[in-house]
Amino acid sequence: MKNTLVLLLFLGLQALSFAQDSIFIRRIYDEALLRGHAYENLRQLCKDIGPRLSGSAQAQMAVDWSYEKMKAYHFDAVSKQAITVPHWERGTTEVAWFRAEKGAIVKVQLLALGGSIGTNGLLEGDIIEFKQLADLQKAKPKDVEDKIVFLNQAMDASQIQTFKAYGACYAIRGNGAVEAAKLGAKAVLIRSLGLPQDAHPHTGSMHYDVGVQKIPAAALSTNSANALSTALQKGKVQFYLEMDCRDFPDADSYNVMAEIKGSKFPDQIITIGGHLDSWDTGEGAHDDGAGVIHCLEALRILQELGYQPTHTIRVVFFMNEENGNHGGQQYAKWVLANGEKQIAALESDRGGFAPRGFGLDGPDTYLQLLNSFAPIFKPYDLHVFEKGYGGVDIGPLKDAYPGIPLFGFVPDSQRYFDYHHAPSDVFEAVNKRELELGAAAIASFVYLLDLRL
Amino acid sequence: MKNTLVLLLFLGLQALSFAQDSIFIRRIYDEALLRGHAYENLRQLCKDIGPRLSGSAQAQMAVDWSYEKMKAYHFDAVSKQAITVPHWERGTTEVAWFRAEKGAIVKVQLLALGGSIGTNGLLEGDIIEFKQLADLQKAKPKDVEDKIVFLNQAMDASQIQTFKAYGACYAIRGNGAVEAAKLGAKAVLIRSLGLPQDAHPHTGSMHYDVGVQKIPAAALSTNSANALSTALQKGKVQFYLEMDCRDFPDADSYNVMAEIKGSKFPDQIITIGGHLDSWDTGEGAHDDGAGVIHCLEALRILQELGYQPTHTIRVVFFMNEENGNHGGQQYAKWVLANGEKQIAALESDRGGFAPRGFGLDGPDTYLQLLNSFAPIFKPYDLHVFEKGYGGVDIGPLKDAYPGIPLFGFVPDSQRYFDYHHAPSDVFEAVNKRELELGAAAIASFVYLLDLRL
User: Fold this and answer.
1) Exposed / middle / buried, residue A398 (Cβ in 10 Å: 0-12, 13-18, 19+)
2) Is A415's CB within 8 Å of B432's CB?
């Protein structure tokens, strides 16, 4: 009898807590959708500032804008964390064309990969095409020497999760220059890591290895890659490339952060964030303007609704995710050195699309917690609550705090690689409601996390 | 012991069937995403033909295009079903502006509602604004008489399911003219049934009642509605409106259809479809070009993969969903009169967005069937398998075949009311992958339905 009463009381309290959470989350969504700041804040970041590659003047503008925005919201502990970042610039010349024997000039849509050296004037060469990075790795030096390697590996459109298709091609961008140079190539061109057939090249990071010749590296739009491949099927093609991109000395920059102090455990911190830097083309709207704005808006909403968190909730705008991750690495070192107790982290870095759910990168013991959120989120169309990836910026917290749960916000991924690192990643590509729903989902998630941890 | 063996055999066969279905559905998705025709077919419908209101020349072009397309795919029983449809035209003059006392002229973005009478020259009048249809219904005739009624009821952006927000405002468009005319108004303007704040008016159907004066009816863009409302807060506003839209005699038109004949029960028919007509603005891309193309592509994929259905699968491009539903009504009558056995129907009429799942409008006994599909669709991010709405075109089958299950394809709804019935509903607003995923989801659903019914 007593046990039954205890059980009934427990179930009753559970139902009450579910109802209270549901009501508060409904208020979060109302604030995001009816009185939201997310869309206007993203507009300012994209239109008043624009692209903001680490070390650029616009990146500094974005730091100042973020700091002032957080101050204006009267968050706690608004601060900048000084870091150093790589500084690479595209320069002013970036042009390419090709010509088949007896053919007309065909201009190519192309972007230097981030970190590439320039061509030091006009570079000319024969093209040798490979359909896979593995084929290049198997090639003989005499076939590659003094040529321009063209890695025409297409993203697999049949992958439902587009990030898997991206992951499978990532190495042509990251390692293409090293692999081509090992065999004596004088430059490397890759097919853009984008899903649509269109005129937008997609840039992104690449690297050089010590002891291997540095060669220029660039990405062709999928249209230009197709045109070049078609021309090569008909015979020899001469390719012309000039780029004056180059590295500069490392620059000073900042992560920008703010908090709502915890009422019960102020020394226990939940970090949420995205990255403030972007590639230098487009406006960094989905990648990752949406992500930082999601997290800023989540904190604003919780404050606006008068929520007093148990733990400290800190939003961090990380700098330099795109070409170094110095912001994420230096943040993890810094919080550990300061003796902070980081108890969980969440990142939004997959665009401002309609929310699908959240992924867990951390011990399985947190899966039950994550799954317990599913019924509360059902009215909001969220359904992904499973193991997954956290984010590049919060990743270093894993080593610093073994066992910490990292969560990644999971929006719909279908349109992400239409825009990723391309000139088309502009404010207009972000839908207002989809952005707002993302901010509301993250605010709700952080609220539940704070209650249950 | 024997029972255990039977159970094990049963579970083994179930697992085998699940594996076989999963493999076939993977092939469906591969065909849609790697070798799909959906995007190019939608381009032709939107760009080579364009908007296609019932009774228009473009509607006839669309009928011919559809018939020839189905013939070219060598489907079975390609045919046109003759029907009659209403014929209304917008005409060539559609202009409006307002002027506050001592104010400048403010031009208004506006579209006549479908079925509205014209103004017979320039119509001028004072404006009286209501925030809800209910407020108009409570108003006194002396306050409304000889004025232009402005129904400024906004869709509720806090609704997660945008169709609910639409449903709650539907009456201002459908009944606004009748309610305003009853009180002596000389015209009615409504705030567009669209969620964004923008310059696109959204048209749609309205009606007149016998015995109530017909008055002109039009929709203002949300921007223009806001501007007008703001001007009215400051004082009197004079409104000017000219529209020469009008009705024409009913026109001849067609539903267009094709089949893959059932191998075992050819007389048992699963109908799948959308509507071929659209409003006369934009290109009817999401509404409902995507829907007919989804279903056409589903049939093409099943045929291409050599699937021989148990039951006959028929795709129907219905005519006249937008302003009369004559196609849907006449189809239901016709199949019943022909003694056909319709066993299920599916409609796609919610746009070409990323799939979420399927809704059931029919007896609860089919819910178990629907739910049994959920695990098979999980890798494809589908998660909605619940009671819902079928579709306007297939709706009349419900009375003709009591107990028939109707299924509605459920894509993400967040962007639908950015485009619905507006000039912005163009081909470019449809994402290729999202469209293809819809076609694959529908083909897979029909495959499972055919196997399990």
Assistant:
1) middle
2) no
| 3-class DSSP state of B63 | helix
**Which of B304, B241, B237 lies closest to B97 in space, CA to CA?**
B241
Report yes or no on whether pTM surpasses 0.90.
yes
A interface test, pick of B23, B159, B386, B433 with most A CB neighbours within 10 Å: B433
Q: How far is B414 from chain A (nearest CA, A)?
A: 7
The answer to whether B80 and B67 have CB atoms below 8 angstroms apart is yes
Residue A188: per-residue pLDDT: 98
How far apart are alpha carbons B369 and B450 in whole angstroms? 12
Collapsed DSSP state (helix, strand, coil) of residue B50: coil
Is residue A102 over pLDDT 90? no
Q: Tokens for A153?
A: 């590996």
**Which pLDDT score, from 0 to 100, does residue A1 have?**
61
Angle value at C-alpha B53, between B439 and B87, nearest 5 degrees: 145
**Closest Cα in chain B, distance from residue A409 (Å):** 15
What single letter denotes the amino acid at residue A221?
A: S
- Nearest Cα of chain B lies from the Cα of A11 at a distance, in angstroms, of 27
The chain A residue lying nearest B384, using CA atoms, is A381
Of B29, B354, B383, the CB nearest to A383: B383
Give burial (CB, 10 Å; 0-12/13-18/19+) of B368.
exposed
Chain A residues near residue B28 by CB distance under 8 angstroms? none
How many angstroms separate the CA atoms of A54 and A440, rounded?
A: 29
**Which residue ranges form the domains of chain B, and what is each CATH number?**
26-88+249-452 (3.40.630.10), 91-244 (3.50.30.30)
Q: What type of residue is B134? A: A
Active-site position among A94, A129, A321, A436: A321
Beta bridge partners of A446: none
Mean pLDDT across B166-193: 98
Chains A, B: CB contacts within 8 A come to 59
Q: Suggest the residue from B23, B25, B35, B158 to mutate for an interface test with chain A (most A CBs closer than 10 A).
A: B158
pLDDT tens per residue across span B279-319: 999 999 999 999 999 999 999 999 999 999 999 999 999 99
* Residues shown for chain A: 453
Give pLDDT tens digits for A230-284: 999 999 999 999 999 999 999 999 999 999 999 999 999 999 999 999 999 999 9
- Is A34's CB within 8 Å of B380's CB? no
Please, what is the end-to-end C-alpha distance for chain A in angstroms? 32
